[in-house]
Amino acid sequence: MLLCVDVGNTQTALALYPDDGDGPAVWDGRLRTEPRATGDEIALLVRGLLGARVADVTAVAALSTVPVLLRELRGMVGRHFAGLDHLLVEPGVRTGVPLLVDNPKEVGADRVVQALAAHERFGGPCVVVVFGTSTTVDAVSARGEFLGGAIAAGVGVAAEALALRAAALRPVELVVPRSVLGRNTVESMQAGLVLGAAAQVDGLVTRVGREIAARDPEGRAPVAVVASGGFAPVVVDQCATVTHHVPDLTLLGLRSVHRRRARSRDERAAKRAARS
């Protein structure tokens, strides 16, 4: 089994995928991301969640969007899953996704593998929308190139900031209100946060779609708008532009990078064997 680990700013997502085939995850779990955690602590939590399934792990693919945890994650994989095939997606690692941006090393590994997973599943050009700690709207060309995108405050971050900075407001549950015309303070905040996030994404997707079409020699618009992220279940049904919701998009992207590297390694080995 391939263990995929996505260490995000707020939560860490994990999944086990079969070694062969394109089937869904056979197991998945989530942890709260602790920025000061050590590699040993991360391993303890991961192994605890896996339980007896840890014996089924044959390979590990991981990434971290939290810079201070990248070194710890690298140590965790190398020490606690020693002897297994492992891959840590970070700047400089080949993913097969051309990054057509000013500084490719600035692009988060999560955005790269999300672009890969969306393009492999739906083709291109496409748009990837992720509702997480931040809300990202990224463009992927017909050839699978990462063209760039927009980053905005996530729904949860916006809710926390509003309650913190406005004395008369308090934290609210992030759910869809009865109407955009809130009849009390809670519903008014929910309308602004949830429905406002949906309207923001629809506006950005429309603009990104025009940019993609303008750059495509054939003037093709996005064939799919793919949503993912922890807050997607709250917002995605309110978005007019989103066509697909794939909850484990980042983990699927990690699986794709791992498979590409394995195929490349096998091809090189076959060529060496043929020459000898």
Give a description of the structure.
The protein has 276 residues and is α/β, with parallel strands linked by helices. It is built from seven helices and ten strands. It has helices spanning 39-50, 67-80, 109-122, 155-165, 185-215, 232-235, 249-275; strands at residues 2-7, 11-17, 27-32, 59-64, 85-88, 126-131, 134-140, 146-153, 224-228, 244-245. It has a five-stranded mixed β-sheet with strand order 3-2-1-4-5, sandwiched between helices. Helix 1 packs across helix 2 (67-80) and helix 3 packs across helix 7 (249-275). The mean pLDDT is 93.
What kind of oligomer do you see? single chain
Shape: globular
Overall average residue pLDDT: 93
Structural class designation: alpha/beta
Low-confidence stretches at least 5 residues in length (pLDDT < 50)?
none
Instruction: Give the neighbour order of strands across the main sheet.
Output: 3-2-1-4-5
- The ordered H/E elements are EEEHEHEHEEEHHEHEH
Overall number of strands: 10
| Beta-strand content estimate | 15-25%
How many individual helices? 7
Sketch the major β-sheet: 5 strands, mixed
* Fraction in helix: 40-55%
Distance between the termini: 32 Å
Rg, rounded, reads 20 Å
InterPro entries: ATPase_NBD, Type_III_PanK
Binding site for ATP: 6-13, 133
Active site: 110
Keywords: ATP-binding, Coenzyme A biosynthesis, Cytoplasm, Kinase, Nucleotide-binding, Potassium, Transferase
